[in-house]
Write a structure and sequence with these properties.
The protein has 8 helices and 20 strands. The chain is α+β, with helices and mostly antiparallel strands and 367 residues long. Strands 2, 3, 5, 6, 7, 8 and 10 form a 7-stranded antiparallel beta sheet that branches. Strands 1-17-14-19-12-11 form a 6-stranded antiparallel beta sheet. A 3-stranded antiparallel beta sheet has the order 16-15-18, with no helix packed on it. A hairpin with a 2-residue loop joins strand 5 and strand 6. The chain is globular and about 75 Å long. The protein starts with 18 loop residues before the first helix and ends in a 9-residue tail after the last strand. It binds 1-hydroxynaphthalene-2-carboxylic acid (1HN). 1-hydroxynaphthalene-2-carboxylic acid binds next to strand 3 and strand 8. The site of 1-hydroxynaphthalene-2-carboxylic acid has 11 residues, from strand 3 and strand 8. It holds the Pfam family Cupin_2.
Length: 367
């Protein structure tokens, strides 16, 4: 069936203002009411309408300011010593894109953060350092560069770096703008440190096998029992897949981090992926609903997002708003490139809001 995107058609609001109508609108306004047809076309876009813009945050520009924060304030003073990345069009809700927040957190050797929990879910992607750890619901988990860890909704969490470690920097991702928009967030601080309830690295050692989950352990929580996805296992898995799998024309070898107990997303509100772009690969352009924050984990290249070119290399962070065309290019002719990303797809798909469109010309023209 043909659809028309034209505000002059029957079915769209097209009422001309008259003095009588204006007086009528005023009367409604005084009663806390309004005539739907004055706003209908605005609140019913023909297609998904992002308010965020594509943005790139260069790590070379930000790194020294992130380090500087560790000279200016302590984790105890700051609660979380983080430089957050904010979309030019989402400053009002502290979002990097859509309803997703991201920031860069620094922790020095011997430091640790206060333990706390909140209804917002969090995840982390490790950028640099040694000896970092996180404690999630009594599970202490050691962290290495390019590891991905989750802190699900309402789990107690705290982080730190061993005395003999090296300053750790990681990217935090949270659904905090979404949970605040839903007016459902909360926050609690623990008096002291969490009590450890399992041996170190219990979750990754027990649940991080090749699709193996322990037959004797019941897991009924709505998030993954695997709290850490090690780069040491993730990268070889991508290379193996790339030997035999063409991958997606839009994303190359795109692998989703999954809950090993269900095969579903790692958490209820946020999903995450690692993708590999082969040497020289230039993916085709498409757009879809869902907001995405990327970090380049390996290599260098660029993405064209909404007709604009954004060059990235290791540790750079960028975003793709909902319903904006994007395509990715690996600029190396010899090395692969890897992009970590997290998104709000669990929300989008579970509410039946996912849609996708391929670019009519295959690729975008750069503005
Ligand atoms: C949070 O709990 C952490 O635990 C980092 O490291 C960043 C940003 C907003 C709200 C909670 C953390 C956060 C956060």
């Amino acid at each position: 069936m043909e659809t028309k995107h034209d505000d002059s058609v029957i079915g769209r609001a097209r009422v001309q203002d008259t003095p009588e109508l204006e007086a009528y609108y005023k009367e409604l306004e005084n009663l806390g009411a309004g005539a739907l047809w004055t706003v209908a076309n605005d609140i019913e876009p023909w297609e998904p309408r992002p308010s965020s813009i594509p943005m790139l945050w260069k790590y070379d520009d930000l790194r020294s300011l992130v380090i500087k924060s560790s000279e200016l304030v302590t984790p105890e003073q700051a609660g979380r010593r983080v430089v957050y990345l904010v979309n030019d069009k989402r400053k009002d809700v502290s979002a990097a894109v859509g309803w997703l927040y991201t920031g860069i957190q620094v922790t020095r050797p011997g430091e640790s953060t206060p333990a706390h929990k909140h209804k917002a879910a969090a995840l982390r992607f490790i950028m640099e350092g040694e000896g970092g750890y996180t404690v999630v619901d009594g599970n202490r988990i050691t962290l290495e560069v390019n590891d991905f860890v989750i802190t699900p909704n309402s789990t107690w969490h705290e982080h730190g770096v061993a005395e003999d470690g090296k300053t750790c920097i990681w990217q935090d991702g949270l659904d905090i703008p979404l949970i605040n928009a839903l007016e459902a967030n909360d926050y609690a601080v623990l008096d002291g440190k969490q009590e450890l309830t399992a041996p170190e690295n219990f979750s990754p050692l027990v649940y991080g096998g090749v699709g193996l989950v322990p037959a004797d352990q019941e897991w009924d929580k709505p998030y993954s029992p695997l709290f850490k996805y090690s780069w040491k296992k993730v990268y070889p898995a991508l290379l193996e897949a790339a030997q035999v799998h063409e991958g997606s024309p839009f994303d190359g070898i795109l692998m989703q981090y999954t809950n090993p107990a269900t095969g579903g997303h790692v958490m209820q509100t946020m999903g995450a992926s690692m993708q590999l772009l082969r040497a020289g690969e230039h993916t085709k352009a498409h757009k879809h609903t869902g907001s995405f924050v990327y970090q380049c984990a390996k290599g260098k290249g660029y993405s064209i997002i909404g007709g604009k070119r954004f060059d990235w290399k290791e540790r750079d962070i960028f975003c793709v708003p909902s319903w904006v065309y994007h395509e990715h290019v690996n600029l190396s002719e010899t090395e692969d490139a890897c992009l970590f990303s997290f998104n709000d797809l669990p929300v989008i798909t579970s509410l039946g809001l996912y849609q996708e469109k391929t670019h009519p010309d295959g690729y975008q023209t750069v503005e």
